[in-house]
Design goal:
The complex is a heterodimer of chains A (202) and B (367).
Chain A lengths: L1 H13 L4 H10 L2 H21 L4 H20 L9 H21 L12 H28 L3 H10 L4 H7 L5 H27 L1
Helix pairs in contact in A: 2-3, 2-4, 3-4, 3-5, 4-5, 5-6, 6-9, 7-9, 8-9
Chain B lengths: L1 H14 L5 H13 L3 H33 L8 H45 L4 E3 L2 E2 L7 H14 L13 E7 L5 E4 L1 H4 L5 E4 L5 E10 L4 E6 L14 E2 L9 E6 L6 E9 L9 E5 L10 E4 L3 E10 L5 E6 H9 L20 H8 L3 E6 L1
Parallel strand pairs in B: 8-13
Antiparallel strand pairs in B: 1-13, 2-3, 3-4, 3-15, 4-7, 5-6, 5-15, 6-7, 9-10, 9-12, 10-11, 11-14, 12-13, 13-14
Helix pairs in contact in B: 1-3, 4-5
Classes of the chains: A mainly alpha (202), B alpha+beta (367).
């Protein structure tokens, strides 16, 4: 039987998916779609970054970050790919890499960007960074919130447990009690989250 | 406090899209009466959306890292291909064991076909896909291997499961001389194994490279890298532009084990129920001709046969070659499909045209 699975795997790994299928797969968190993107674009993009003085680990980070940018794009409703997936990924990787270099050397020697569609990619990366800072802020707020609130909210919103399950895990007498507790936590989280925003603004 | 809780609930429902019309109205009246609640609601929505996004983002981040840590899943094929020679010695064993399995398979197949025939009658559709069921099974190593596996599974399962063993046939034609083939998606969609029978009688394994269910097109590739359909590059090209009404067309395909020629004309620029991706042709087509190339008088492929109207004879539908080109162009460049650019059929008469291109048209068998 081992040989059968060997054969099927061999066939499966050879299948090419179209760009649209890849994007849909990525949006759904489909593992084989992610593997297919790696297969098509990983080595070439890593080579590109390493060729420009990056370390293997840096290159890996940039590539994975670019996939997250692509994921966020694929999730948004109005998104439709106007160029080849490879072109898009390359442009994003390139920009992320330049940003990384700028940050470490503290001066921008890289204005040598001769693409026509620059704004469009920069906008995507801007969105991405904005989102990342927001997620970071939320994670900080969750830490500040303390236990058991932070675990309770994570259990409900991240792990998607039901109220009954949460009541059982956190030792509440019933689901209704857990729900009340969750709302209290949420209200507190909101205060911390938006207070942090005011702080950063001022 | 009570309002606050209500606002939380509304925000939660709003984010998950479960807010009812009644709640929306109640919410708006509250906001009109006391506008100080509105920012509270908006903040809550923002917070919930961020929470939602965070969980999705973390999942995909983990997945991306996880895949990155397992290069075996996506790095070069070389490793995987090294494994294939090891499979060979085992085939000898399956050849013998397979013969016994074929007997069992044969009987269950007949039962299935009988039952399936009845089921087909109940379905009143005007559109028939031209896939041919093949009764005769050619014993090939892989088929035997697969049937062995199947029979073991099938013994306990009911007849409905047996549909997987049924053999279907269609037609395909070469896109490149080195093994890319175009056919219909419905020919290969449920395939466990795909075999391509070439004009010189060889049975070759193929796999699906790309598919476009909407246009009903699939692209296959022969596993044998060294096989060439002909000694010269493809004699026909694939038309980019749409063909006009009244264009004379012909097709060759495999409704039976021998190649068959048919001719006709484009009778409507739209296909079944106004489908803008396909043509309606006035031409006879039989089951098994799904995926046959439709060529104009100059020998350019203008369409692929997909189906026919069930209640009449002679009305055939064929999908535009443009949809095929689109699918080819969406593939990564590593697929390396170089489409035929030159047409060497345009000045020949029909018999010469058919003679020149028949080795590039193949029969496709699927199970």
């Amino acid at each position: 039987m081992g040989y059968f699975s060997g054969i099927t795997a061999l066939i499966l790994t050879k299948v090419f998916l179209t760009d649209v299928e890849l994007l849909e797969g990525l949006a759904e968190g489909n593992r084989s779609a992610v593997a297919a993107i790696y297969r098509s674009y990983h080595s070439i993009l890593i080579k590109w970054i390493v060729g420009r003085g990056g370390s293997e680990a840096d290159a890996q980070d940039v590539f994975q970050e670019a996939l997250i940018v692509l994921y966020e794009k694929s999730k948004s409703a109005e998104f439709c790919l106007t160029c080849k997936l490879g072109t898009y990924l390359f442009a994003i990787c390139k920009r992320l890499w330049y940003k990384k270099v700028e940050r470490s050397t503290l001066f921008s020697a890289f204005d040598a960007d001769n693409d026509e569609d620059t704004d469009h990619y920069d906008e995507d990366i801007g969105h991405h960074i904005e989102k990342e800072t927001q997620y970071e802020k939320l994670e900080n707020a969750l830490t500040e919130l303390g236990e058991p609130c932070s675990s309770l909210l994570k259990a409900f919103y991240v792990d998607k447990l039901s109220m009954q399950e949460i009541a059982a895990v956190f030792n509440y007498t019933n689901a209704e009690n857990a729900k009340t507790q969750k709302y209290k936590c949420l209200t507190r989280l909101k205060k911390i989250f938006f207070l942090a925003e005011v702080k950063t603004k001022s | 406090m009570l309002e606050e809780r209500k606002i939380n609930e509304w925000a939660e429902k709003y984010v998950s899209g479960r807010l009812t019309e009644g709640e929306r109205i109640a919410m708006n009246t509250l906001f009109e009466q006391s506008p100080q609640y509105r920012p509270q609601f908006e903040q809550m929505v923002e917070l919930l959306e961020t929470l939602e996004g965070l969980s999705g983002r973390n999942e995909i981040r983990d997945l991306v890292k996880e895949v990155g840590r397992h290069p075996g899943e996506w790095s070069s094929y070389d490793k995987a291909q090294e494994l294939t020679p090891k499979v060979l010695p085992l085939r000898r064993y399956f050849k013998i064991a397979g013969a016994a399995a074929m007997l069992v398979l044969g009987s269950s197949l007949t039962t299935f076909l009988l039952i399936n025939k009845k089921a087909d009658k109940a379905e009143h559709r005007n559109y028939t896909e031209l896939v041919r069921k093949v009764n005769t099974i050619q014993a090939s190593q892989f088929k035997i291997m697969d049937s062995l596996k199947k029979v073991k599974l099938e013994e306990s399962k009911d007849i409905a499961e047996a549909s997987k063993i049924a053999l279907y046939g269609g037609t395909g034609f070469a896109l490149t001389n080195d093994g890319y083939i175009a056919t219909n998606y419905h020919v290969v969609k449920d395939a466990n194994d795909i075999y391509v029978q070439t004009a010189d009688g060889k049975d070759l394994r193929a796999y699906i490279v790309a598919r476009e269910p909407n246009a009903d097109i699939a692209i296959l590739k022969l596993e044998d890298k060294d096989y060439r359909f002909g000694k010269v590059p493809l004699p026909y090209n694939i038309a980019r532009a749409a063909s006009g009404l009244g264009q004379r067309v012909f097709t060759i395909g495999y409704p039976k084990d021998e190649i068959v020629y048919n001719e006709g004309y484009i009778s409507c620029e739209r296909g079944y129920e106004g489908d803008s991706l396909s043509y309606q042709l006035e031409m006879t087509a039989n089951p098994g001709q799904s995926g046959s190339p439709v060529l104009d008088k100059y020998g350019a492929v203008v369409a692929l046969v997909t189906g026919k109207q069930s209640n009449t004879t002679g009305t055939t539908y064929a999908v535009h070659s443009g949809a095929l080109l689109e699918l080819v162009h969406s593939l990564p460049s590593s697929a390396n499909i170089r489409l035929p650019m030159n047409n060497r059929l345009n000045k020949l008469d029909r018999t010469e045209q058919v003679k020149k291109m028949r080795t590039y048209v193949v029969s496709i068998k699927v199970k």
